[in-house]
């Protein structure tokens, strides 16, 4: 990946997303944000999104500080585990909500997913 990064723009890429963990690692290790930084530096001037283990505003902030070359962050599993993570990012703080509020949000998300994917609940 790193040795090919300088060629991405030449190959027609306008933006790249880098995940800090390999498929083989699955969730056995934390995302390697130094690797993401190395790829982002090698891919410059392309915009780069980093991905991996963003589960809170603090994770987002730490990633952006660790890799200042990033254009932004892509969130995957964090949005599935904690759908209100985007509120945390917008408000730039931990969104501490009650278990009742969490359950209400998760019910809404479940209904949206089942409608979108065609399942009945």
UniProtKB/TrEMBL annotation:
Domain DUS-like FMN-binding: 6-98
Pfam families assigned: Dus
Reaction equations catalysed: a 5,6-dihydrouridine in mRNA + NAD(+) = a uridine in mRNA + NADH + H(+); 5,6-dihydrouridine(47) in tRNA + NADP(+) = uridine(47) in tRNA + NADPH + H(+); a 5,6-dihydrouridine in mRNA + NADP(+) = a uridine in mRNA + NADPH + H(+); 5,6-dihydrouridine(47) in tRNA + NAD(+) = uridine(47) in tRNA + NADH + H(+)
Catalytic EC class: oxidoreductase
Enzyme Commission code: 1.3.1.89
Single annotated GO MF: RNA binding
Recorded family membership: Belongs to the Dus family. Dus3 subfamily.
Protein name as it appears in the record: tRNA-dihydrouridine(47) synthase [NAD(P)(+)]
The species this protein was found in: Rhamnusium bicolor
């Amino acid at each position: 990946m790193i040795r090919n990064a300088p060629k991405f723009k030449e190959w027609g890429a306008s933006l790249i997303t880098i995940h800090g963990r390999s498929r083989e690692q699955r969730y056995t290790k934390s995302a390697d944000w130094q690797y993401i930084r190395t790829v982002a530096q090698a891919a410059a001037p392309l915009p780069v999104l980093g991905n991996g283990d963003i589960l809170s505003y603090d994770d987002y902030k730490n990633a952006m500080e660790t890799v200042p070359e990033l254009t932004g962050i892509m969130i995957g599993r964090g949005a599935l585990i904690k759908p209100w993570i985007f509120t945390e990012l917008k408000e730039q703080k931990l969104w501490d909500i009650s278990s009742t509020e969490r359950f209400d949000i998760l019910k809404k998300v479940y209904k949206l997913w089942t409608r979108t994917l065609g399942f009945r609940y």
